[in-house]
Design goal:
The chain has 227 residues and is an alpha/beta fold. Helices cover 33% and strands 18% of the residues. It has eight helices and nine strands. It is elongated and about 70 Å long. It starts with a strand and ends with a helix. The structure holds S-adenosylmethionine (SAM).
Length: 227
């Protein structure tokens, strides 16, 4: 898989992409992540990529020219046509189901906004899908891109130590995950449930399913109402 990110701040990605699972997945060749700076497509001497909004109002708006030119350049970097995603709080809300769908794509192109956001013609002209990572406003799309990249990469076969890890994760089966315990058996008077020490795998699986259902009912009843 290949993910291109169009951003004004490629340096923000350095640490997340060079650590832990994201680093390993790139080293193993499971994912290619390519950062392209939108500012490199500015056409004036000041490398300007934003301007005042028509009609007045606060802040600056990202100009369409540099984003279009950057997208056209990036599209040509690989023969695979990328699925273009505009990161915006106005988009469809990202979730595990969406992550699963996107992890099956060969190529994604994520466009991160800044300032007051994109000139509307970027949304219209690129015909891009719009994704939001939640109902709040970030100062830029970089963190949203990182959230999406991280969520997708851990779903790629071979990215995690254990292939089965994402199977029981919260949201994967429409439920929160069951409670997990590790050593010691007793910690500050709190004991690991006997069933987990029993070695009876069938009973453990039943218990875990029951626990997943109960905690979903308690903490996220909205998940049980979804299709
Ligand atoms: C300050 S925001 C602009 C918000 C815009 N004025 C609005 O109200 O819709 C700047 C950029 O951050 C990114 N961003 C902010 N919140 C986001 C969210 N919840 N999900 C995805 N991207 C987000 C987008 O790329 C956006 O263009």
């Amino acid at each position: 898989m290949r993910i291109d990110v169009l951003t004004l701040f490629p340096e923000m990605f350095v640490s997340p992409l060079s650590t832990s699972i994201l680093k390993r997945a790139q080293d193993k060749g499971l994912i290619d992540i390519v950062l392209t700076n939108i500012r490199d497509f500015a056409t004036d001497n000041y490398r300007k990529v934003d301007d005042k909004p028509y009609g007045g109002g606060p802040g600056m708006v990202m100009m369409p020219g540099p984003v279009f030119d950057c997208d056209e350049y990036v599209q040509k970097l690989s023969p695979e046509k990328g699925r273009v995603i505009l990161l915006t709080p106005q988009g469809q809300k990202f979730n595990q189901k969406k992550a699963c769908q996107l992890s099956k794509e060969k190529r994604l192109i994520l466009i991160a906004g800044k300032y007051e956001g994109f000139d509307e013609r970027i949304r219209i002209g690129l015909g891009a899908e719009q994704i939001s990572i939640g109902d709040y406003v970030l100062s830029g799309g970089e963190l949203a891109a990182m959230v999406i990249i991280d969520t997708i990469v851990r779903l790629l076969p071979g990215a995690l130590g254990d292939e089965d890890s994402p199977k029981d994760d919260s949201f994967s089966q429409g439920l929160l995950e069951y409670p997990q315990y590790t050593r010691p058996e007793v910690f500050r008077g709190m004991k690991v449930p006997d069933i987990l020490l029993s070695g009876d795998h069938k009973k453990i699986a039943e218990w875990r399913h029951q626990q997943a259902l109960e905690r979903t009912k308690k903490y996220r009843p909205d998940l049980l109402k979804m299709e």
